[in-house]
# Entry
Amino acid sequence: MKGLELIKKAMKLEEVERIPWVPFVGAHAGSLLGLTATEYLQSADKIVEGVNKAIETYHPDGIPVAFDLQIEAEALGCKLAWADDNPPAVISHPLMEGTKLEDMKVPCACKGRIPMVMEATRKLREQHADVALYGLITGPFTLALHLLGTDIFMQMMMDPEATHQLMRFATDVAKMMAGNYIEAGADVIAIVDPMTSQIDPASFETFVTPYITEINDFIRDADALSSFFVCGNAQQNIEQMCKTKPDNISIDENIPLDYVRDIALKHKVSFGGNIKLTVVLLMGDEEASRRDALECMDIGGKKGFILAPGCDLAMATPKENLIAVSELVRDEVLQGELRASEAATDNIELLDLTNHWDKDKVVIDIITLDSSSCAPCQYMVDAVARASEKYGDKVVYKEHRIKEMEGVQMMATLGVKNLPTIVIDGNIDFISQIPPINAIQAKIEAYLEAKN
Amino acid sequence: MNELFEKLADCVEFGKINKVSPYPPNMKDQDGADEIAKQLLDQGVSANDILMKGLMIGMEKVGVKFRENKVFVPQVLMSAKAMTAALEHLKPYFQSGEAERKGTFIIGTVEGDLHDIGKNLVAMMVEGNGYEVIDLGTDVKAETFIEAAENNPGSVIGLSALLTTTMSNMEKIVGVIKEKHADLKVCIGGAPVNQDFCDRIGADSYNPDPQGVVEFLNALAS
# Structure
């Protein structure tokens, strides 16, 4: 199934055949090209080249065109400090430095780096019809904070009307950006508003909800999908986020995914997250990346969930870790193996196999994912069945599917670590590759000989 | 006398800066932290008592509420502003030595990170709890932290990062500090930071909220 279709299904809360994967590759794509963030984020051609490289390497179902929450601020006159390994940072706040709000205008889409990201979007759209393109816009509260600085938190309390006017302006900017991204071909508009994590639910409801709702409606009217991104511990605002009626919300590892899942589904909103960005993807290895991703997948499930990192990937994130995740999402056998090995270390109740063995018969256990949905598993079971025919009731075989708890327990009890595996009289004899019939029969005869 | 301490603590807890401030609505037109601190000084109350019996009590209540997610950044900033307004009146007494600080805390955001909200919150709350705070600002290199620590023996360093993309700089900075001064205490915080990360990079304390920083400093000072 094509990535864009998967994303659409997930966001409509339809069951998907596999969980969609959306790595938040921003300046990290620059590192794939050997560029600094400064070089990468100031060139449409480099962005196209970098996103192409990321698509080729990580096989995403969706991907951001650029992850930079300073584009609108820059177009509005904020000064930026550029860095080698980070997106730029806003270092000036016009409304704190004498500019009046009434003198500010929604910028022309021709200003600053806006044309750059729109051009990149158009080119990527032409080249990747099937990958969901995410156009990221600065959420209005975060943009308002760029313009006014942290004084906005006091202004909210001391002069709420002024904050509403500022949010009105920031929302108009956001709609301009969303409209241009959609026109350029973006499928999903992500409203990225990390600063909303800092405020209480009552303030969120007053100063954020009406404006984000308006943006979400605008995006829907333009036949695109909307996603509401927040970074940081925004647990107190998850419910309010859902009430803005986005198609999707996405969170980072500060918030428990099961908590988000339950609230989102209650509001009929799809949800994404939240592979650990730092201790796993940046500092961990492939094994840790697979395990953390699988944990998210198992919590998120196949209805409404999109697997993503917690936030913008660090440039130095090892690409091997992201490749490991991209392979995992498509490999149900590997998922099963990880679950079973996790089960063993999680002290799953091992089975008492005392009565499982037989002093007169050879007992064959085939550990599979599920022979109906895993082709190698099916052939493995078939091979055992055919090999056993000539021995009649002297050979007993049984399939143990690890999609069922008994299968997981059996796998752990027998010490099996790969799928599919053939265990004969408790001995792991064939792993992964389907053996020839005569090889199985040779083993059976050896065990029968030993019993006589 | 006792009543004014309580009022001052309330002003800090609920963010009543001064008389003209319209926030919080139920304290409108009342004296704020600014006026009450001055009244206490005029009555001959010592700066230390004003800090210990008024400001710190209010600030601790806010810190606990913040930790428990009962108040958030806007409320805490208003409290910090109220505390700052009162502290302005006490500054001469700290400088003259009549009132004592409990220790020195050096704070900044790590190199590459120019976000200052969390850092400012921690700085204000730590100061409100009786410590001298040296705020190095944003985008601070390891060498700058070390120099400030060497100029202030016994101080503790606080590192803040809001960007996940500047996490690796935090690790480098902690590494450089510990290499030069193994006994220098470093605490870390910021939205993407957690205990796992703290353990990995060898920092002494991770605190998800400013009150945790205060408690860490208080434990060291005792």
